[in-house]
Structure formats: structure tokens, C-alpha cells
Design brief:
The chain is α+β, with helices and mostly antiparallel strands. The chain is 37% helix and 18% strand.
């Protein structure tokens, strides 16, 4: 299984190599020098994912004991020292062979001939700790949890946690949909500013491998200069996974105690009471670097026009487009033809849309189909 640190390295190097992430941001996330990042990029272009492997991978160590010695030792164990424990066996073999065999090496050889009892339970795979990011706003881990939060209904709690400070942002929705994720991120960005990296799973709503560069969430974050990195396992984004365990244990009880039964009341309690007074003050930590990585957005930027669903249509030769199976005609006075060009449709959370071309709003009129005369 790939380590969490290697997962992050692979995603960052891939983004930098494809031009989707700035090199300085890549250095900051991986905590390496410019020279090291150049070496990663060079190795990645030559070897692909194999650049994660150490240079000594599958090379025979110079101090490896020959197979003839291993077979000789195993034969001695089976015929002469079959009732010796490992430490006693190690001492006897030193007397007989004239050199000391490492305890773990000897143990492995004995396992091969079933001389040592194996553990009945298989040990779990190792997990490796990844250090927190140095600045708040540098990376946020995000996920959704469907649970019986209150009122006996399965609802989705969308949550994001700052990797550096453990500050939590959360909101209840009916489901983990594109509209819900865009609305949640819009509120977060409006409150804190633009962050650098969103670290999430490969769910289709965020993009993932199959829908990379096709997700509305990834597109919207790209417009404010943020990137999306995908975790290859739940353990890689362990902070947000553990957060849901805490919230399911504590928040559910708090909501029941306060008699909350609607999404509106739950969100109000979550934003005004639970997170600012009960959770964040108790669990937040101080970032290593006090300088925040959140960036202020331009004052003229309308977040409603960024965090919405955007689709594109090709204009026909007669200046018509097809939307939801219906023909619409562009009625604006345009000097030159825009046939075969793309226009942008921006859908809000209620499903209403507006059309734009070159950032200018267009006026469209639906073409009514002729009705057949009933016989």
C-alpha cells in the first residue's frame, strides 16, 4: 500500500508537471528545496510513478549472506538444533560457523522451514505519520458523512478541517451533491478567503481520476486559484475521517439535547454555538508559521458567479442553441457571427440559468415548436 506521504508527493508532482500548480506551492507542500523538486520532476518524467521508489530498490545488498550459507544453517536447525530457541541457536551457530548471524535474519530463515511458530493473527499494515502543513489555509481536508444526525433522517454533513490548525467548518445538506459542495465552499471562501489546496477523496463530485478536470468543484476552485488533490486512501486524509467519528459521538447528542429537528435549526446551532464555542476552541492548535496562507479575493469578484454550475453550448449557424431538449435563439444585436463558438450557461441552485459570451450576458428566447392539429 502506498504511504500517505508518497500519495501527496505523487499528486503534487503530477500537478506541478502538468502546469496546474505553481512550483513554489509544490515546494511548500512537500517541504523540499527547489533543487529537490526539480529532481522529482525529472525522475517523474523519466520513470512515471516509479520515481517514488528508492534507488536501491530490488538491488542486492553487498553484505547479503549467500544462499549456500542459508541452506547450511537451515539443515543444521532441522537435524541438530531443532529444539533450540532462537537466541540459543544464534549462540551455537556462532560457535560452529565462526560468524554471527543477525537475529531477524535467523528468525526469517527459521520461518521458511516452519521452525518458529507463526502468529495466529495477521499484523495490520504499517501507517506512516505525515506532518501538518505549516500555515493555516495551505491545505484543507474535506469530506461528507451520511448519518442519522437528528430527527431520524439520513442527512449529509459536509465538513472541512484545516490541516495546520484543525479549525473545522461544517454544514448540513440533504446529500453530497455538486450544488451542496459548491454552496459549502462558497460560504467557506467568503468567510476566510481563498485557500491553496483542497485534499479530498476520489468521489465524482470532486473530480477523481475518471472525472479529473471535469468537475464543477475543481473548476470553481481553479477560478480562485485553488487546487484539488485526491487522496488514494481514507488514511491519507485521516484528520477529516477522525473528525466525523468525534462529531457522530458528540454532535448528535448535543442536537438531541437541544431538541433540534430541522436543517435550518441544526445549521444555526452548528455555526453559532457548537463549532465556535464547543469544538474549535478545544481542538484547534497553533500553526508553525503564524502567517496565514488564505488570500483575500478581489472586491469585484462575485462568488455567486464562481460557485455555480457552468455548462457550455455550441452556437448553431442560425444563432440557436439547445438547452434541455429545447431550442433557444440569441436575440442580442451582435455585429459578427458567433456560430460554432461556445457560450457559457450558469445555473444557480434553483436550476435557473443565464447565458454569457465573452463575459457579456446574452438574451435568449425559446423557439416554440408547432403543434400538430388533432384529427
Amino acid at each position: 500500500m502506498m504511504k500517505a506521504k508518497d500519495q501527496l508527493k505523487l499528486e503534487v508532482v503530477n500537478k506541478v508537471n502538468s502546469g496546474l500548480m505553481d512550483r513554489f506551492d509544490g515546494q511548500t507542500l512537500l517541504k523540499v528545496s527547489e533543487r529537490t523538486l526539480r529532481r522529482y520532476l525529472k525522475d517523474y518524467r523519466l520513470e512515471g510513478i516509479g520515481f517514488l521508489r528508492h534507488g536501491n530498490y530490488r538491488k542486492i545488498p553487498k553484505n547479503k549472506i549467500s544462499s549456500e550459507v542459508r541452506k547450511q544453517v537451515q539443515k543444521l536447525v532441522q537435524e541438530k538444533y531443532f529444539d533450540f530457541n532462537l537466541l540459543h541457536l544464534q549462540e551455537k551457530l556462532f560457535e560452529e560457523l565462526g560468524f554471527k548471524i543477525k537475529y531477524q535474519t535467523l528468525r526469517r530463515w527459521c520461518h521458511e522451514i516452519n521452525h518458529v511458530k507463526r502468529a495466529k493473527r495477521r499484523r495490520s499494515k504499517p501507517r506512516y505519520y505525515r506532518e501538518r502543513m505549516s500555515q493555516e489555509g495551505l491545505m484543507l481536508q474535506m469530506d461528507g458523512s451520511h448519518h442519522l444526525w437528528f430527527g431520524g433522517r439520513f442527512l449529509c454533513l459536509l465538513a472541512a478541517i484545516d490541516d495546520s490548525t484543525s479549525e473545522v467548518f461544517a454544514r448540513f445538506y440533504e446529500g453530497e451533491t455538486t450544488i451542496a459542495c459548491l454552496d459549502f465552499l462558497k460560504g467557506l471562501v467568503n468567510r476566510k478567503g481563498a485557500f491553496k489546496i483542497l485534499y479530498t477523496d476520489k468521489a465524482g463530485v470532486y473530480g477523481g481520476i475518471k472525472r479529473e478536470n471535469f468537475s464543477q468543484v475543481e473548476r470553481a476552485l481553479g477560478e480562485i486559484g485553488a487546487q484539488v488533490i485526491y487522496a488514494h486512501s481514507p488514511q491519507a486524509k485521516g484528520r477529516v475521517e477522525r473528525l466525523f467519528g468525534t462529531l457522530q459521538d458528540r454532535l448528535v447528542a448535543e442536537l438531541r439535547l437541544n431538541g433540534i429537528g430541522t436543517i435550518e435549526a441544526a445549521n444555526e446551532y452548528l455555526q453559532n454555538v457548537y463549532l465556535p464555542h464547543l469544538h474549535n476552541p478545544k481542538n484547534m492548535v497553533q500553526a508553525h508559521n503564524p502567517v496565514s496562507a488564505y488570500r483575500a479575493l478581489p472586491p469585484d469578484l462575485d462568488l455567486e458567479q464562481v460557485f455555480c454550475v457552468k455548462e457550455y453550448r455550441i452556437v448553431g449557424k442560425d444563432h440557436t442553441v439547445s438547452i434541455a431538449g429545447e431550442k433557444w435563439m440569441i436575440v442580442d444585436a451582435i455585429r459578427e457571427s458567433i456560430s460554432k463558438q461556445k457560450i457559457e450557461l450558469r445555473f444557480d441552485k434553483w436550476g435557473t440559468w443565464n447565458a454569457y459570451f465573452a463575459k457579456n450576458k446574452l438574451k435568449l428566447v425559446k423557439i416554440l415548436r408547432p403543434q400538430k392539429i388533432a384529427a
